[in-house]
Amino acid sequence: MKNTVQIFYLIALLFAFFFSSCEQEVDGCTDANACNYNNEANNDDSSCQIPIDEILEVTYIDAVVSGSVGEDLISHVHIRNSSCDPVSVKARKVYNGPEETSAYFCFAGVCFSSSTIESPLALSLDVFEEDDYFKGYFSSSVAGDYDVKYRFYLEGDITTLVEVDITYIVS
What we know:
This protein is mainly β. 11% of the residues lie in helices and 45% in strands.
């Protein structure tokens, strides 16, 4: 009986030692170059946000939009902050089309008239946040192909930018 109790205690001690010495699994990003690096993580969960060379990144664009004369044609552009710091972004329209056309855009929660070239408001994007609100609108009373450029840049730094060209085909 005494041996049975000793064996039981020995097994219990070994069991406790085995499980207490096991490293607990902590999910997270294990890449030290990532914005969301977790130094306590020991199991990479594929959530790492690795900054790229360009701070602003276009993740989606309707580059060619077609429709009828007099119809509002709509292009969507998604912009992401691909840096480890929050940013403020502005938009600028580059278009010198004929009077028969109208190009305007919605950005940062506001739609601007066709006479607006630069958004007076900035859009705040957190680390790796993506915005899907930008819409470029175009209409024409004359059929043809029209190109509109939109430039997205950091507020206070017009050299850090990304540009998109949208072709509107009016038939």
